Amino acid sequence: MVKNIVLVHGGLVDGSSWAKVIPLLEAQGLEVTAVQNPLTGLADDVAAATRALALQDGPALLVGHSWGGVVITEAGTHPAVAGLAYVCAFAPSPGESLVDVSARGPAAAGGRHFTADAAGFVRITRQGLDEDLGPDVVEAERRLLFATQHPLAAASQGEPVGAAAWQTKPSWYLVTENDRTLHPDLQRAMAQQIGATTRSVASGHLPIFSQPTAVAGFLIEAARQVG
């Protein structure tokens, strides 16, 4: 069993978004590192993940949620990475960006609630968080997520990956069946394209908040298989 797990968060949140999942992984004897992405651009986020990978004392399972999937697709070429796990995450091919993957469709309903500020950083409206991004997240957590959201540089969504680690390393994919941010059919198509071992959970786009036990179980299974 691979003992090291490196978690890469998505847009609008930070490494603490894995707070419910981390103790469940540690209870199984896994060593967990949650990357703090600056969300200022793909290269910056890949660099942050690479720094975390360089600190691992052995092979690691590299995990990405949402935007984090783009990051791990490129950062996963690091020699410490034994496998990749995508949690309702984007999995581009070489030369593709998040925008390119999204264009494959079908489109999810929640895209209309994302807005960019004058500096070009994307946020979500309270309505979008409540209705689309996290409808199955408890209200107190949704309030906190809205107040503390970490905006993502809009330009990063158009930045292509130069390499795709899933072409040479085993992958796992967790499909969120009730997702209104990243359409479940697009998730399944990506999982099939990358040849991932696929599991599913009845949740929205934030299963790390609403279904942490299912997410942890998925990652523990992946760590055992890649090991």
Layout of secondary structure:
Layout: E1 4-8, H1 22-26, E2 31-35, H2 42-54, E3 60-65, H3 68-75, E4 81-87, H4 98-103, E5 114-116, E6 121-124, H5 126-133, H6 139-148, E7 152-153, E8 171-176, H7 184-193, E9 197-201, H8 207-210, H9 212-226
Parallel strand pairs: 1-2, 1-3, 3-4, 4-8, 8-9
Antiparallel strand pairs: 5-6, 6-7
Order of helices and strands: EHEHEHEHEEHHEEHEHH
Shape: globular
Number of strands: 9
Category from helices, strands and their pairing: alpha/beta
Q: Briefly, what is this?
A:
About 35% of the residues lie in helices and about 20% in strands. The protein is built from nine helices and nine strands. The chain starts with a strand and ends with a helix.
Describe the structure.
The mean pLDDT is 97. The longest helix is centred in the last third of the chain and has 15 residues, at 212-226. Helix 2 packs across helix 3 (68-75). The protein is an alpha/beta fold and 227 residues long. The protein is built from nine helices and nine strands.
Features:
alpha/beta; six-stranded parallel β-sheet; globular; three-stranded antiparallel β-sheet; 9 strands; 9 helices; 19% strand; 227 residues
